[in-house]
Design brief:
Blueprint: H1 3-19, E1 22-23, E2 40-41, E3 44-45, E4 62-68, H2 74-87, E5 93-100, H3 105-117, E6 122-126, H4 134-142, E7 146-149, E8 167-168, H5 170-184, E9 189-194, H6 201-214, E10 220-222, H7 235-249, E11 254-257, H8 260-273, E12 279-283, H9 286-295, E13 304-307, H10 313-326, E14 335-336, E15 340-343, H11 369-375
Parallel strand pairs: 3-14, 4-5, 4-6, 6-7, 8-14, 9-10, 9-11, 11-12, 12-13
Antiparallel strand pairs: 1-2, 13-15
Helix pairs in contact: 1-6, 5-6, 7-8, 8-9
């Protein structure tokens, strides 16, 4: 899949989100009932506007499918746990079926078809395969299933091809972290943006924001000028990739990453190479924060900032699907504005390292400390 195709999908989704006033039709009808009157898609807001799921449960028995495009890292495991915990609050949700496409687009298509055949009424899905999944999603919608993609966009038209698309404002996320990183670099030097699985629409959207900010600073050279560096969102792969970048470029002054949990592998690559740690921004991860405390005195160039890893958006995706199935109006945001929550240069926002929690824990995820401890036991 080309990056241009993914970019077009993101532009469409972002445009709907910013408009905040599109009315859903086919994607918002109830389970055999009429469409919800004046149901809007793409509404923009903040995390504190998420509502209690009890408002959307309804009374009918419901089977929920979670079609994950890739389930192989801690972020995905936490997100699955959040969805299952949220679904358990509705006594009429009788079953949650989870599938993991393992980064394989053809398996992702097969997984969604399988969930439909198993009787899923609502399907929540992280679309790693971009527009390649759209025909399958449209087919599921036509069969009466309420499909809600989150974070990874399939393109298409929210409110018609599927219920709605739930995510943060991706480009703004990339641009905000890039601005912070470039400011800490003094507006000059070599910058790298680390993404996830090759060709995924999410990393491309973050990259577009980084490019926009980098272009505003003549002293900045974005080393990966052809798109985000693929790391598969895995610490081990990230370490290998960053080691290769260090060998190729020698000097790297700043990094923007779309996964803090994977960034820890990149940090290890710099330490192993005996190179100064650069300015680094990502989304939050317990080990990412703890590594800053470990190296902050010996590595003065190593400053970090994070925005929320926002695993909690999966709750809203579930709410949107339940609302559509039950014919209940949902006025929660579907596009969330994020802000920097950790900043090693700001005494009021110092990174949070919880030594009693596992390295893979994500403190902003929405899970409690006991839930995180149980998940990573």
């Amino acid at each position: 899949m080309s990056r241009n195709t993914n970019y077009a999908a993101l532009v469409l989704a972002a445009g709907l989100a910013l408009a905040g006033c599109s009315t859903g039709t086919a994607g918002t009808s109830g389970g055999g009932g009429e469409a919800v009157k004046d149901q809007k898609v793409g509404m923009v807001g903040t995390e504190d506007q998420i509502q209690d799921i009890s408002k959307f449960c309804g009374k009918k028995d419901i089977t929920v499918g979670f079609a994950d495009g890739f389930g192989g890292n801690s972020w995905r495991k936490i997100t699955r746990a959040i969805l299952e915990d949220e679904a358990a609050k509705c006594p009429n949700i009788k079953k949650v079926i989870y599938t993991d496409a393992q980064g394989d687009t053809q398996k992702a298509i097969s997984d969604i078809n399988s969930l439909v055949s198993q009787g899923a009424n609502v399907i929540v899905t992280f679309v790693d395969g971009g527009e390649a999944l759209l025909p399958t999603i449209k087919k599921a919608t036509a069969a009466g299933v309420k499909v809600v993609p989150f974070v990874g966009s399939p393109g298409g038209k929210p409110g018609t091809d599927y219920v709605d698309f739930v995510a943060e404002d991706i480009t703004t996320y990339g641009q905000a972290l890039a601005k912070w990183t470039i400011d800490q670099m003094g507006g000059k030097g070599n910058l790298v943006m680390l993404g996830g699985i090759a060709g995924n629409s999410y990393s491309q959207g973050v990259y577009d924001g980084v490019v926009k900010e980098a272009k505003a600073h003549s002293g900045i050279k974005l080393l990966n000028s052809d798109g985000p560096v693929s790391t598969d969102w895995e610490p081990g792969k990230t370490q290998q990739v960053v080691a290769g970048l260090i060998t190729k470029y020698g000097s790297i002054d700043g990094i923007v990453a779309d996964y803090g949990g994977g960034s820890v592998g990149g940090i290890r690559a710099f330490i192993a190479a005996g190179k100064p740690l650069p300015v680094w921004s990502a989304n939050d991860s317990n080990e990412f924060a703890c590594l800053w405390y470990k190296y902050k005195d010996s590595q003065p160039t190593f400053q970090v900032a994070t925005e929320s890893s926002r695993n909690w958006v999966v709750k809203v995706a579930l709410h949107k699907g339940l609302s559509a199935f039950n014919g209940i109006k949902n006025d929660e945001p579907s596009t969330f504005n994020l802000q920097i929550i950790e900043d090693s240069t700001d005494p009021a926002k110092l990174p949070k390292c919880e030594k009693d929690l596992p390295p893979d824990a994500i403190l902003s995820s929405g899970l409690t400390v006991p839930q995180l401890q149980k998940l990573f036991k």
